[in-house]
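BUG-475 | component: ligand-complex export | severity: low

The export step for nicotinamide-adenine-dinucleotide jobs runs without errors, but we want the raw record kept on the ticket for reference. Input record follows.
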Amino acid sequence: MSDSFDVVVIGAGPAGYPAAIRAGQNKLSVACVDEWKNRDGTHAFGGTCLNAGCIPSKALLESSELFHRVHGEFATHGIKVAGVSLDLLAMQKRKAAIVKASTSGITALFKSAGVTGLQGHGRLLPGRKVEVTADDGSKRVLQAKHVVLASGSIPMELESAPFDNDSIVDSWGALDFTSVPRRLGVIGAGVIGLELGSVWRRLGSEVIVLEALPDFLAMTDQQLAKEALKHFKKQGLDVRLGAKVTGATIANGAVTVRFTDGKGDQSAEVDKLVVAIGRQPFTKNLLAEGTGVELDERGFIKVDHECRTSTEGVWAVGDAVRGPMLAHKGKEEGVMVADLIAGQFSEVNYKTIPSVIYTAPEIAWVGQTEEQVKQAGRAYKVGSFPFLASGRARAMESTAGFVKVISATDTDEILGVHIIGPLAGELIAEAVLAMEYSASTEDIQRTIHAHPTLSEALHEAALAADKRAIDFPNR
Ligand code: FAD
Ligand code: NAD
């Protein structure tokens, strides 16, 4: 096998593997090196997202939601069920099968795009060389015209509650519980805390979530955040805001977590504690001396808007660089870089990256929050539509939440769309497309939406921005 490639990608997560595939599609010779190892010691492509993130968490979210609905909702539909019980091992087996199908799919995709997939540790050497160390310690050096760094991120550890990977775990550990913890503690009411807190709550855990900030989902439109907190509290998530964790002690199989909040010093005893306080870029042993690739003060690889690092011919994408730590953001960066390397035009529109929190109700948004628009001093209008007034949502027994459209008063351009409710993560795609095309509220108003669908809620919210909603009184 040749040791010389047009492109060598380090990391085969959702940022690295699309970069490799697109480079292959662009008729460049490409190798992708990845070191991910599963708990059983086997290698797998796909990175955090496929192995320990997006995919396994969504599998468990789906299963746990079904379990919850059997208990809480089927009777309302007139469906009587008896003897429902949980087989967590079967649920975990299903999750593992989905992960396996997804990760082995990448091997097939590499093959069809002509990508050489290599398992081992990649280290950038000066002169666009990549040293690959295999499991047995053997090394080979690849020469590349371009190197793409896509080494991803790892969970942040909390000094006052360090991981022991049994009682105090990260998100990967929390996806792999083999029994439902009677009491679960979660530190951090961010995306992971809420998604995994929801999974275990629905499966029967008592869940306490400790969030340091005084505001819930501080990065989200606060009207949405308020609505979300109301539903999560109703579901039994005990969310404590402004809670500073001061320590955690493990004894007799339980964790006592100590924290301070508005009520003073407190403690909670739980069976498992999940620490989900954010993730940090992973660049351990990635860069040899003299590569010239710079990191910023938080450890992210420094890049420009086209993901060029400080060294010519070396690019970096995904969680290891600035911007939201999202699989689809990394994917678009990887694809952009592979197209730029091939001399084609490409760009990522960082203003239209959607965010989704896969709880029930689901939360999704794109663009600016009302708080951001207000702060920017721009005159704006808002249109909202509650799912309670949607025929399809009523038929689905999923009427919680609403759609909110924010547009500029002067140009009518859509500035942000915020959705909490059924399939919000799917519905947001229309808003992303609209914003990608700089659409106006009127554009959505004049677009025909099938009836009865959830997407009509977006249509009606756009109409409501001009007090022209049909299916809900205009205010
Ligand atoms: P990673 O996925 O972390 O992949 C990096 C890869 O590079 C890994 O395989 C790593 O082993 C390998 N690597 C690192 N260094 C080297 C080296 N020197 N040599 C060889 N290989 C190396 N995002 C979403 O958009 N939607 C979601 O629903 C979602 N859910 C999530 C749920 C959880 C529980 C978690 C933890 C994350 C979730 N994310 C989600 C975030 C998403 O997983 C990340 O944004 C995404 O995986 C980042 O992709 P990446 O390719 O940059 O890095
Ligand atoms: P996050 O940044 O979403 O949330 C972390 C939360 O922990 C924040 O609310 C923060 O204020 C809080 N926090 C920080 N330090 C704390 C402390 N000492 N005590 C209590 N609370 C503390 O991070 P995450 O939930 O760990 O997720 C990591 C990344 O993974 C995110 O960037 C996210 O984008 C990505 N992710 C995305 C999805 C999705 O797209 N659905 C799902 C899971 C993860």
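Assignee comment: Attached the raw record above. Residues 10-16, 33-36, 47-49, 53-54, 57, 121-122, 150-153, 171, 192, 282, 286, 318-320, 325-328, 330, 358 surround flavin-adenine dinucleotide (ligand 1) (CB under 6 Å).
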